[in-house]
Amino acid sequence: MGLYPQHNIYGGAAGIAAADDGAPLSYTVEAEQGPVGLRYFAPPEPLCAYFGSLYIFSVSSPGYADFTRADVPQLRFRLQGRGGHYIFQDGMTMPTPEVCLLGPTFGATRFQLEQPTRVLGISLLPAGWMALYGDEASGMADSAFDMVSSDAGYGLLLQSLRQLDDPDAMASRCWSFLQERIKPLPDAVRAMLETVDGWLMDEGSPRLETLVERTGLSARHLARITNRYYGAPPKLLARKYRALRCSARIALDRESWQVLCDEGGFYDQSHFIREIKRFIGLTPQQLQNEPSAVAQLTLLRRSLGGDVAVINRMS
């Protein structure tokens, strides 16, 4: 199902609404198949190492379908609507639980909704994944899990969120809930995650040799670390974040994808197109001329300001 956003992205010339005092950012877009809304909230400073952002996503049309890009793990609470499922890059289809933990994804994931739906979601960085779930991330890559089955507290939180109308109150309730479940990471682990994050974001096309040099660890040892915390070995992580960065520059900065192809270490234009299609769900041409509502709004996470780290904005 193709979506063709209209020009009315509200919130100023850049399509962003943000108060000087750090109030939540809001994004809204009208898609041809019906209104799609997405509002972002930056995490409070103590939780920035664990979570990328909190968001409220809404669709008022039944039978809505779209792609979400390859992403970090997501914790999602269905506030309104029933039914729906995910179709992962390998073709596996899974129903969406009311409180869903999505593992890290390494290809665009298609979702289909049966009814008008409203969802509150939270992006989990590696430290947040370990704090809330704990198992190796690669074991849950491109998959989903019902969080209520392991912790009834998530079901109680969902019930309380459904009683609230104010998005700011919802965000506050979630941050308080998550704060209570945070398990501080050892300093050595935190330092390693900061090194890997920096490697992923510092280079246009991250090279494994650079990470080996920065850490003093072997490629095999690094693969064990990144599989555990990020869900994949370094080379696949590098491909993922290279594609995410390029897609944002195409859709938001209006840069030429042909130029990005030359700069980004891709073999040729066919390789560039395949990589963007795999990780984003759209071709570079579609990103440039007719991005779907979800693709466009998800990319705007990059605009989260304040003290939010760059990788949080991409995640």
How would you describe this protein?
39% of the residues lie in helices and 19% in strands. It has one domain (1-315). Residues 1-34 have low confidence and may be disordered. By secondary structure, the chain is an alpha+beta fold. The chain has 12 helices and 11 strands. The chain is globular. It has helices at 126-132, 152-162, 167-181, 187-202, 208-215, 219-229, 234-251, 257-263, 269-280, 284-289, 293-299, 310-314; strands spanning 25-31, 34-41, 51-59, 65-68, 74-80, 85-87, 93-95, 99-102, 109-112, 117-124, 144-146. α4 packs antiparallel against α5 (208-215) and α7 crosses α9 (269-280).
Note the main attributes of this structure:
single chain, 315 residues, alpha+beta, 7-stranded antiparallel beta sheet, 4-stranded antiparallel beta sheet, 12 helices, 39% helix, 19% strand, globular
Order of strands across the main sheet: 1-2-3-10-5-8-11
Low-confidence segments, given as residue ranges, are 1-34
Would you tell me the overall average pLDDT? Answer: 84
Number of helices: 12
Q: Tell me the major beta sheet.
A: 7 strands, antiparallel
Count of folded domains? 1
User: Helices and strands, in N-to-C order?
Assistant: EEEEEEEEEEHEHHHHHHHHHHH
Rg for CA atoms: 19 Å
Range of helix content:
25-40%
Secondary-structure content class: alpha+beta
How would the blueprint of this fold be written?
Elements: E1 25-31, E2 34-41, E3 51-59, E4 65-68, E5 74-80, E6 85-87, E7 93-95, E8 99-102, E9 109-112, E10 117-124, H1 126-132, E11 144-146, H2 152-162, H3 167-181, H4 187-202, H5 208-215, H6 219-229, H7 234-251, H8 257-263, H9 269-280, H10 284-289, H11 293-299, H12 310-314
Antiparallel strand pairs: 1-2, 2-3, 3-10, 4-9, 5-8, 5-10, 6-7, 6-9, 8-11
Helix pairs in contact: 4-5, 7-9
